[in-house]
Amino acid sequence: MRDFSYFRASSVDEARNAVLQAGGALLAGGTTLLDLAKCGVAEPATVVDITHLSGLGEINVDASSAVIGALARMGDVADHTQIRAAFPAVAESLSLAASAQLRNMATIGGNLLQRTRCPYFRDPATFPACNKRNPGSGCPAIGGVTRNHAVLGTSDACIATYPGDLAVALVAFDAFVDLGSRKVSVDDFFLLPGDTPDRETVLGRGEMIVGIGIPASAAARNSTYLKVRDRQSYEFAAASAAVGVELEADGKTVRDIRVALGGVATKPWRARAVEQALIGKALDVETVERASGLAMEGAVSHGGNRYKIELAPRVVARAILKMAQNVGGLA
Amino acid sequence: MTRTIHLSLDINGRRHELDVEPRVTLLDALREELALTGTKKGCDQGQCGACTCHVDGKRVLSCLTLAAQVEGRQITTIEGIAAENGDLHPVQAAFIENDAFQCGYCTPGQIMSAVACIREGHAGSDEEIREYMSGNLCRCGAYNSIVAAVREAAEAVR
Ligand SMILES: Cc1cc2nc3c(=O)[nH]c(=O)nc-3n(C[C@H](O)[C@H](O)[C@H](O)COP(=O)(O)OP(=O)(O)OC[C@H]3O[C@@H](n4cnc5c(N)ncnc54)[C@H](O)[C@@H]3O)c2cc1C
Ligand code: FES
Ligand code: FES
Is B85 inside any structural domain? Predict the structure, then answer.
């Protein structure tokens, strides 16, 4: 790890200013930043420690929304009674992520900004080329080992998967990222790789995430996060789904349904086609399975990741059927 | 030329003064600067749990924590959990009783993780212990005995 200087910020403005100096990087839980510094991917000149700032770690839930500070720890949000009651998919996406130790360290703001686990991206010594690290240098994953790479939202420049779980639940429930001077929906916050895979979010230089907000809804209250992976715990998703369902008063017809996918796309992926196919319908196994197939519209395989195209719709269907059963609406 | 920074760390109830480069992790500070070598380095990348310590009573990975970051926090390592008189912590005793290790390399991390796991209330069943101890890998595969030790220690503490 290259050496850097260390600066402990005592206010948000101080932190923002320190980052604006060349090569400054915010340090929250450090579980992405220090990991990538050790890989030689991140080379900050100054590390700006924001963990001693007060007031950014709060979790407030009322009837209309949840507001969570950027420095709230993953573990504290996962265990929060009101989050678990009003946004079970959000709580589950966190408790199924990483390990207990990492969840005690990692923050909500840092979590959104975690980087891809693409092994080519993470190993600059062996693979100098990578369009995310060195724009225009090429993508060694294309034509390489692609078991964990994305099938949705890819481009000719990059097929790296967005690895996080939380953002998948957030995008399903129309959450937004609070940048202090502006608020951006989580869906708009993350960018598709296109020709510029080095730009992953709309976060500008010197901007800082101060928190996130999640609107309350009946679908969010009746929701789940289903994560399928190579081992039962402490592993990133091979495919995951955040699903929420609200039925009409008849107890059968879908009024509102939210579906988002993780582990298969270059950004947290809202599957609106699946939602549209199910609104106004009764949920039986066949209808749900057919609609879930729409989640893979436009999917492209690069060989090793072909299995995801079959796996992801099954994960979506299983999650929808579970939530249908939960509200007694399984036809 | 390397710039060092002066740190004052509270470890196992004692104050330690040290001068280190800013990039030095808590793990390296413990092992290389303070001769507290009970905390182990496995992967050095947050993937194995061998370096687990407590910061303000919560289990964390010392390999992904900067020493500079934890000034003013209370740090506890494996050297700090036995009683003053040398009596082992109930989790340490349960690991010996259940033969919950082979080479022993992962053991300090397992024990620090288990102490926290029990305190968090996440040791209610074998299934729960396996889930909440999943951040500690054991290359020798002593998992069955580790689960038994955590279960026994959780009962002893209760
Ligand atoms: C072994 C391992 C397994 C993991 N498994 C999973 C998993 O299964 N699922 C999952 O979702 N995640 C997983 N993770 C990723 C983990 O969740 C992230 O590393 C963590 O959430 C990042 O948060 P942090 O606070 O530690 O971020 P940091 O490392 O402190 O920061 C990450 C990035 O965000 C920037 N940053 C931090 N805070 C802010 C802010 N407030 N405003 C603007 N920029 C900011 C930093 O400068 C840095 O670039 C795993 C990580 C490891 C090491
Ligand atoms: S040495 Fe810290 S997790 Fe492996
Ligand atoms: S006892 Fe050898 S690694 Fe766990």
Answer: no
Judge if ipTM > 0.90. yes
CB contact under 8 A, B66 and A27: yes
Give me the tens of pLDDT residue by residue for chain B, a chain 158 residues long: 468 999 999 999 999 999 999 999 999 999 999 999 999 999 999 999 999 999 999 999 999 999 999 999 999 999 999 999 999 999 999 999 999 999 999 999 999 999 999 999 999 999 999 999 999 999 999 999 999 999 999 998 87
Residue A249: CB atoms within 10 A of its CB come to 7
Q: Is B37 inside a domain boundary?
A: yes
Do B14 and B70 lie in one domain? The reply is: yes
Long-range contacts of A308-313 (CB under 8 A, 24+ apart): A308/A151, A308/A238, A308/A239, A308/A263, A308/A264, A309/A151, A311/A228, A311/A238, A311/A239, A312/A151, A312/A239, A312/A241, A312/A261, A312/A263, A312/A264, A313/A289
* CATH classification at residue B30: 3.10.20.30
Range of the domain at B146: 90-157
Q: What is the CATH number of the domain that holds B131?
A: 1.10.150.120
Q: How many CB pairs under 8 A join A and B?
A: 86
Nearest CA in chain A to B122: A100
Residue of chain B whose Cα is closest to the Cα of A48: B69
Q: SS3 helix, strand, coil % of chain A, rounded to 5?
A: 30, 20, 50
Q: Which atom of ligand 1 is nearest to the CA of A227?
A: 8
Is A30's CB within 8 Å of B22's CB? Answer: no
Q: Which residue of A has its CA nearest to B3?
A: A5
Same domain, B68 and B104: no
Q: Does A233 touch chain B (CB under 8 A)?
A: yes
Ligand 2 pocket, CB under 6 A: B 41-44, 46-51, 61, 63
Helices (H), A250-304: 272-278, 285-293
Among B54, B80, B106, residue at a domain's last position = B80
Domain co-membership, B40 together with B99: no
Q: Distance between CA atoms of A181 and A179, rounded to whole angstroms? A: 6
Q: Give me the number of domains chain B comprises.
A: 2
User: Which A-chain residues 100-119 have CB contacts (< 8 A) with chain B?
Assistant: 100-102, 104-105
End residue of a domain, out of B29, B61, B80: B80
Tell if the CB–CB gap between B135 and A101 is shorter than 8 Å: yes
Q: What is the pTM of this model?
A: 0.97
For residue A31, report the distance from its CA to the centre of ligand 3, in Å: 24
Q: Is residue B137 part of a domain?
A: yes
